[in-house]
Amino acid sequence: MLSSLTKGLELEKKMCDAHGIPVLPLSPQERMRSILAYRNDRRLFKRVCSMSGEPMISAYHKDTPFPVIKSSLWWGDEWEAMGCGFVPDTNQPFFPQFATLQSQVPREGTSVVNSENCEYNSHTRDSKNGYLNHLSAQCENVLYSHLMISCTDCVDGISNTECTLCFDCGFVKQCYECVKCEESSNCTDCHFSYQLRGCSNCLLCTNLTGKKFYYRNQPCTPEEFATLKSSLLDGDSATYTATCKEYEALKTSSPQRATHTLNCEDVLGEHLTDSKHCYGCFDIRSSEDCFNLWNGGSNDVIHGYSILLPRSQSVFSCVTIRGCQNIFFSSNCWNSNDLWYCDNCVNCADCFGCVGLKKKRHCFFNVQHSPSEYEALARDWRERMIAGKEWGEFFPMQHSPFCYNESAAQDFFPMTQHDIVSEGLRYREFDDAVARSEGSAKEATRPPVHLSSLQEGMILDCPACSLRYRIVQQEIDFYQKMHVPPPQQCPECRLTARIVERCPYSLVSRKCSNCSIDLETVYTEQKAPQVLCETCYMEKVF
Fold it and tell me: What digits encode the pLDDT tens for the residues 356-414?
């Protein structure tokens, strides 16, 4: 069986040969780390709009050197990026000059599109009444969650789809009124459970399908279930913490499905849906012929993060691409085609080294050219970049608009402050981040806060990071409805813990614990002692 790396490298070489890109000796992890350094998934700051002077919430800190403007202004006609263009010096490398252009062009404060009452969110579309969510779409009344699609009335979720009234759940789909469930689908009133499908009224269960009224994988009466549920979900923090520990032990000791894929053909990765011929990919849907694509839904993508709807095709080494075709070494581009080394370009075509352009064609460093002039410049600078060993590389991490620990790279490839600085990258303290903007750091020694004592606007000290955070009425109402205790840490620390707990986005070689067939899975032996191939999992568990 060919490995995901071997199959993926075949796709990479095919695209490189087709577009004149050198095949560099860079691992998929190295490629992805540099890409993720140009993306801030979840950290927000208070600052003022560089154009209007109005207060705003932004993904960019107030100390950034470039102008940052409100989304409504960025997408409007009040400014023009062509005025920032210049002719680059042919005696100087490409990347430092491109960084100079980036520092002059206004950036969008935060990506919240077609949403209502979602100011304190990032990367949010078509949503309503959200608070401190990141990467959400078509959601309503969702709080403190990450990667949520079409969810309603949910809190503290990660990677959930079409769910309602779910708390502290991860990688669940079409679930209703569930607490602390993971890797489950089509479940109702299930709690502290793992890998359930089509179940209802289950407590502390794993690897069940189509079951109703079960406790620790054994049937129980509706009356017994109601009593047990009331005792476990009593709003008390100590009870919840103890039950979570029991659940984690139960999950670790249970047989683990090697990969969670649905309706896929010839794929290697984790959390793939409706896809085929995709290798080393994670959290993707409706994709084909992709290698090293994370959080995506497109075709022919090699090394990409957040290549999502509208779908794109033929993308190489890019981050945040929507509705594009033939995009190479670029970031934050929408509805464009044939771009090379571009950033924040919308409705553009045949551009090279451009930033913040809208509805432009045949531009180089934000300067308009005739088609023949553009082609000559592109060829000339390609040769210069090849000679300078820049061609085929993504933008250097040192030139990212974000400090390393602000970026998504920190979530997937965490580094200490010492290591970040030693690598020549920037590091930032988060005392003034939005989620922690209510006070300064102080020693947190408070006892657990009970649900009955919560009040809107209450300021709490996080015992994990010693910084303060605010309680909102929306979450109090949710906790009371679900009979769950208020989380004892700030939203930032809770999300960081969930990200740390999830499996790394890398595959390891294992053997099926039952039939010994070779596997590629995200689950190490420490994370899951028993890993089963799909055939054995279905036979042994169900």
Answer: 999 999 999 999 999 999 999 999 999 999 999 999 999 999 999 999 999 999 999 99
Is pTM beyond 0.85? Reply is yes
Among positive and negative, which fits the CA dihedral 380, 386, 388, 393? positive
Give the angle 454-456-461 at the CA atoms, nearest 5°: 60
Q: Which helix (H) or strand (E) holds 99?
A: helix 94-102
For residue range 110-167, what is the model confidence (pLDDT) as tens digits?
Answer: 889 899 999 999 999 999 999 999 999 999 999 999 999 999 999 999 999 999 999 9
Residue 372, amino acid? S
Cα gap 270→248, rounded to integer Å? 21
Could you count the other beta carbons within 10 Å of the beta carbon of residue 473? 11
Helix (H) / strand (E) element for 29: namely helix 28-36
Question: Which token pair is 21?
Answer: 């890109």
In angstroms, the CA 322 to CA 295 distance is 12
Rounded to the nearest 5°, which phi and psi values hold at 296?
A: -145, 175
Which residues of 396-466 form beta strands (DSSP E)?
459-461
Closest C-alpha among 462, 466, 452, 448 to residue 491 = 462
Is the Cβ–Cβ distance between 57 and 332 less than 8 Å? no
Place of tokens 């933008």: 395
Angle between helices 94-102 and 371-387 (to 10 degrees): 120
Q: How far is CA 99 from CA 262, 317, 341, in A?
A: 42, 18, 11
Measured distance CA(514)–CA(516) in Å, rounded: 6
